[in-house]
């Protein structure tokens, strides 16, 4: 497993380490810094790699009465410097300050994205180093392998966990999810995945996500009774699970039980009012159960939300 | 992290994403006909058919959207000799394209021996604009089919003079329909016995409005997704019966809905004798124009359940068709969409609502990564059940640079109706179903009069594909040409019921269907291995609405039935 951990973990780690060092020339030189170090000087020192000496001043600079551009630069350089010396607490401080002072600044957001990614990778390294045989390490490695499209290796990781701890919760769910994710799955994939979700429910009858996916699989097969049952159970297990109420309502609509579908869809609407899918399903249930006026309102909301989504997506298309 | 196992932390979107790569291998059941001794379709090569014409799209670095959308094609019997001829649409000069040499559409006359002769010049139907599609109908009731050619710019109505030539009567008729016209269909919406004309309009486009579109991060210029262009109003022209038409788009309610029309089919979804229109729209909601009578339509796409996917999302509707595939007496609808959207098979619930059964019937999984255009329900093996033929191809010629699993050129698909659902039999149906194509239009017609419906596929920037049906004639059949007298001349909207021993079936003659294309106007009734057709009943469209019943019918040949004559010939 350790070999695989190294292989899968180190790909992102190497990329991220290169990034965090990109803005820092060197880290070795040390020199005593004066307490009255100016923000500009601290930035310059940090850019020369004198991170330990400059971090405190850079933090202070972000709250000082200096030009906004200087503040931003202090934050950006501060994140990079803190990462370079692996001062994770300082990294989080800089991120918090950048979020607060430059919440919509592209440069700040870019740095924050990379910082979180880098921190994530380092935490993964910590896990691999300190508890390489733990279930958590296997799970994380399996997820990393999935992201790299190494489905068979990921499946082996999950199976390794089950060998060690056959009753480990969540693993059958992950196996099922992995099966549904892989593009090279065979035509029996849904049946195989279903078995994993059922096993998961034997171990953890309160797993609403497993119930939900079983509901979706049944809905896709237009097995409305099972779909309704699964979705309603998922909603019962997690009363805030809007998607489960939506699936429940959609299944009842599919089963032509339009009046029955209204109640779960109303709950879904209350939980996530901005979801156009819910309004469409509710409108369909309403119009088919004779509530035309209410249906028209829901169709109008659906149109409005959908066109909003479309407008939001449009700027990505033309250059 | 890719989500977690926490309750409630798994969304429909997550699930959809999971499935985006799954199930993509179609289920491939064994072909059910034990008597099958050869592949159902084979390509008739140009050197054999004589069809050497090729479509030119004029692909440019600027990626003008019309370059990716055409062309269409049609089977028609322009000279009324009983043999199906072929019409093919080409691009041409327009504001964004000046071809190096003149381009033209093509009319091929059927030589009755499996070959065709190009008669375009004599017929005078070369068009010359940036063509898209074609609709065929005898609008003046003179017994000769006329041609309506949709174009980007200005469409053309060619009147068939009955002597092998046509005359451009667009201006006199008043049906130029400026803009970017897509599919058109002839049908009689007001039941006055004359064929009216619906012309679908795509988006607001011109050279000046062309947008530079790039998707993802490959740095290449792609054809735009049509959502970046504004929707437009489609046209409905009322046939005045004197060679002219009146634009009734507004008064009929057709222009009350802005769309991006692609395919269109005229059908009757509620059996009220009034022809409705189903229009597939690209990236906006599909339209179902319910004919309310008195010349009025009501757009009921949303409440009927055909506007969106089951999840309520707009799709890229392209081709359409309508048939009563489950023989419950109500017309169902089909729409082809783009990759990762799944095609739609809307089953009629008998109350002016529909539910999408494509997933349940195996069509969803087979089309998950496909992009569909021309399509048609027809009984290719003449067993009495309507099957389904789909022509495919991604509109983006650079799609493979951004999606590893999606191909630009895609194979066609053939689904066989088993009586319980549809089986994807493409893989067992011969090499033509593994041939990658940029298919667009698709027309059905029996070019060799053997009772087996053949297929014509038009290809973007390539030669058309003529497919000969090898197995339809292994079953028994009866082909019928219907001639309306009080009802419209092409009998669009007629219903045909027939009985052959244990087989009882009904068909409706829809208007149009597919994409940019039109079809053999004759109806072929398959009866399988049964050797007798017991009776046949024609319910003619309004205004006559009369029903005629025939017995003692021949099989394995074509007959003509003229409305009101009580006999066939």
Uncertain stretches of 5 or more adjacent residues of chain B: 1-36
What is the average per-residue confidence, as pLDDT of chain B, rounded to a whole number? 92
Q: How many separate helices of chain A? A: 16
Taking all Cα atoms into account, the compactness measure Rg of chain B is: 22 Å
Shape category of chain B: globular
Strand content of chain A: under 5%
What do these coordinates show?
The complex is a heterodimer of chains A (319) and B (569). Chain A contains 16 helices and no strands. Chain A is mainly alpha-helical and 319 residues long. The radius of gyration of chain A is 26 Å and the shape is flat. Chain A starts with a helix and ends in a 6-residue tail after the last helix. The model of chain A is unreliable at 1-33 and 311-319 (pLDDT under 50). Chain B has 569 residues and is mainly beta. Helix content of chain B is 6%, strand content 33%. In chain B, the strands form 8 sheets. In chain B, strands 6, 7, 8, 9, 10, 11, 12 and 13 form an 8-stranded antiparallel beta sheet that branches. In chain B, strands 17-16-15-14-32 form a 5-stranded antiparallel beta sheet. Chain B starts with 11 loop residues before the first helix and ends in a 7-residue tail after the last strand. The relative contact order of chain B is 0.14. At the A-B interface, helix 7, helix 9, helix 11, helix 13 and helix 15 of A face helix 1 of B.
